[in-house]
Amino acid sequence: MALQDFKCPNCGGAVQFDPTAGSMKCPFCDTVLDVAAMSAQLENAQTQYGAPQMNPDGSFVMGQDSMNWNQTGGKQSWLPGEQEGMRVYVCKSCGGEIVAEETTGATACPYCNNPVVMLEQFSGYLRPDYVIPFKLDKKAAEDALKKHIAKKKLVPKAFKSDSVISTVKGMYVPFWLYDATADAQGSFTATKTRSWSDSRYNYTETSYFDVYRSCRLSFANVPVDGSKKMDDALMESIEPYNFADAVSFQTAYMSGFLADKYDVDSMLSAPRANERVKSSVTEAMRSTVSGYDSVVPKQTNMQLLNSQTKYALYPVWVMSVKYQGKDWIFAVNGQTGKVTGDMPVDKGALNLQAFIRWLYLTAGFAAALVLLQILGN
């Protein structure tokens, strides 16, 4: 069984074997998976669920996906008095809505950095089920960003030395969390290739195989951000969050921080959760297909069992870095310190790197190594 490519069902990270624990462990969210149970679950799935049905043309029978979620979370009502001390700030520039204490006064929009001064009464916002409190303070977040930028080799030196962190906003981002058991079947096209030669010709023979797998995997807290202003790819790039630190929501955790007012409900966020679940399950099934030169997913069918949703607030430091009159926006995971964001690229360094790669491929490793030593001096 090829487990080296297996993805964590909770956060999508690459699972590794932990010798001390004698089990598979995700280095990102600490999820522990039993090797024997995983092998039995995936490799013996055909025995568990029965042999696949075949179409007259020899292909596998696949039904339709049934990936519907029970909308169980985000239905709590606010407790008496909880909303009295909060207001909604609306940015006239980008339309972003953020929630803060009424004493915050004027602030800057974390999305576009323009002033936000318009106050509205707090309303139309469901009470979260959970919150992961901030673990990193403002200074720790700034230090994490500076270290992140310093490590980037293709960033202009002036950006590292002259750029200024102009705004730092601690914000709770709304996330919908999805739990379910995925009952799945998948077919794959696998190939084996062999080559040989005789005195006249070179030959290559490629054989194609239809491979079937089925499995049942459980997922917990698959996150999808519930804000249109927060790009899904941006938020996913600072994952994972460790849900073990989540606590029942209390307004006290919002003191001193902003909160994004969600504008995408759990039903509209569900397709992204489906994509993440389906991708993880497909990769899990594919990783058990060994002995072939290539394995390509052909068709999958998935049903969700015992599904439910939760509504939570996750901590993010949103920072604006000013460089040559432009604001560069970064996000820092307020729990782990992981950083993401776009940066300017030094075209000279990029071209040099491309040249060295070309030289390595054409002139050989030795010449490239000599050039690198010269440049280093």
Helix residue percentage: 10-25%
Helix count equals 8
Mean pLDDT: 78
| DSSP strand content | 35-45%
Q: What Rg, in angstroms, do the CA atoms define? A: 25 Å
Q: Which ranges are low-confidence, i.e. pLDDT below 50, for 5 or more consecutive residues? A: 1-5, 40-49
Give the H and E element order: EEEHHEEEEEEHHEEHEEHEEEHH
Quick summary:
The protein is α+β, with helices and mostly antiparallel strands. The chain has helices spanning 35-43, 45-49, 138-150, 157-162, 232-237, 266-286, 347-363, 365-376; strands at 16-18, 23-25, 32-33, 86-90, 97-101, 107-108, 115-116, 118-121, 130-131, 164-197, 202-225, 247-248, 258-260, 294-323, 326-333, 339-341.
Structure, described:
- Helices cover 24% and strands 35% of the residues.
- It is an alpha+beta fold.
- Strands 4, 5, 8, 9, 10, 11, 12, 13, 14, 15 and 16 form an 11-stranded mixed β-sheet that branches. A 3-stranded antiparallel β-sheet has the order 1-2-3. A two-stranded antiparallel ribbon has the order 6-7.
- A hairpin with a 4-residue loop joins strand 1 and strand 2.
- Helix 7 runs antiparallel to helix 8 (365-376).
- It starts with 15 loop residues before the first strand and ends with a helix.
- Mean pLDDT is 78; it is low at 1-5 and 40-49.
Secondary-structure topology with pairs:
Elements: E1 16-18, E2 23-25, E3 32-33, H1 35-43, H2 45-49, E4 86-90, E5 97-101, E6 107-108, E7 115-116, E8 118-121, E9 130-131, H3 138-150, H4 157-162, E10 164-197, E11 202-225, H5 232-237, E12 247-248, E13 258-260, H6 266-286, E14 294-323, E15 326-333, E16 339-341, H7 347-363, H8 365-376
Parallel strand pairs: 9-14, 10-13
Antiparallel strand pairs: 1-2, 2-3, 4-5, 4-8, 5-13, 6-7, 9-12, 10-11, 10-14, 14-15, 15-16
